[in-house]
Amino acid sequence: MPGRTTVQASRNLATTAILASALLAAPAALAVPSFARQTGMACEACHTVFPELTHFGRVFKANGYVLSNLKKVRDVSGKKEQLLDLSQMPPLSVMAQISYTTMKSGVPDLANAGAPGVAQSGTVGFPQQFSLFYAGEVAPHFGAMVQLTYDSAAGTIGIDNTDLRFAEEMLLPDNGTLTYGLSLNNNPTVQDLWNSTPAWGFPYTASNAAVTPLAATAINGPYAQDVAGLTGYLYWNESLYAEVGGYRSAQQGVTNQLTGGAGPLDGTASNVLSGVNPYWRLAYEHNWDRHTLEAGVYGLDFKVLPGGAPGAAVPLQGPTNRFNDVAEDVQYQFIGEEHLFSILGTHIHESMTLDASFASAASANPSDTLTTTEVAATYYYHRRIGGTVQYFSTTGSTDTALYPATAPGAPGVITSANGSPDSRGWIGELNYLPWLNVKVTLQYTWYSKFNGAGSNYDGMGRSASDNNTLYVVLWFAY
Fold first, then answer.
1. CATH class of the region 13-477
2. Among 23, 46, 266, 464, which residue carries the largest CB count within 10 Å?
């Protein structure tokens, strides 16, 4: 889901002066909802076009979302310690996406299993997604970005991307700065400062009605909102960034079969993390004139207990599956008065050790690999009209159990006749922003390979291009 980023007012004079001057110079009307109201700045202070961040937006986020230009309710102790710092306006906002999706070829309608027809062509999401945000300062040095979302595919309301931050900043002897902080979040990379990592990476919005490939790396979404992570970070001179922490399972909507409560998780729960699982990040950003260049590495190492239904072959104890992801990323931005240009890229390599799945015949191999590459280029004119082109590719080990073929007589669509996860293609997107907080998007996804083949990938005659998808969305926030 799209996210927002932010900055805390520094206590040292150098950074305070920079932030204050930016605050006074920025327009105060056209605003991304919660953070814009809190800071008094227009969207363009923190974003090129939402949700991609500028350098100022990244600093705002690293400093805990607490820079404010609002009247406050304050209290101090007898020792002048700050006890309360509440904005008079609550930092709430809403976001909605209304969409239309159609694929090149319809998918089977399984209402009549003996002779399936074709499902309706075209899906309307009204809304596809509707979110309520709490986004801004909570207390001195403590801010939050909490998203509650209605998802039309599930027909439910649930917790979405969430990032709670504590941050401080100190002045170094050489007049440099060091920001240090903690992030409590529910999606690996949602706390990251750059849009080259998965949680906030392109495409910034996607259809929930389209057919998508079988395979995805562990860091690229499968555990979003089902984990809780605590990470600590250092941000030196707004350039060098280092972060390390760990994640545990925090699954939503899972009931313990014995207690009837939310936990503890047992063997009926699927894909439970075993213990604390490490996450790490290292990046360097260089800024000159109107240019910014970032390069970095990041990764995680998840040990997963597959679990399943009561009496499943793989209980919530014993062998685990291990997903070790190591990734590189790069981001370039040019932000001019009229023209904005950016390049985003990431390459993720995943090594899988499938002790649990191999023992239960859920995988054909004891170990597999998966590699994802994504490169996107974006251009905007006056932040009003623009577009993005992205190339994406996933390759990996052939595994006929992990990526199964369709059973005879049961049309699959999301299957692989040859057991391969390989998929690749392009996304082209055009955007028009009549206002800075309203975006109209026309997006087309084209597949040259899908789940292992370009043609007849499911063994029943469906081609990769049959899953090409046209997606139109009205996306606004207030």
1. mainly beta
2. 46
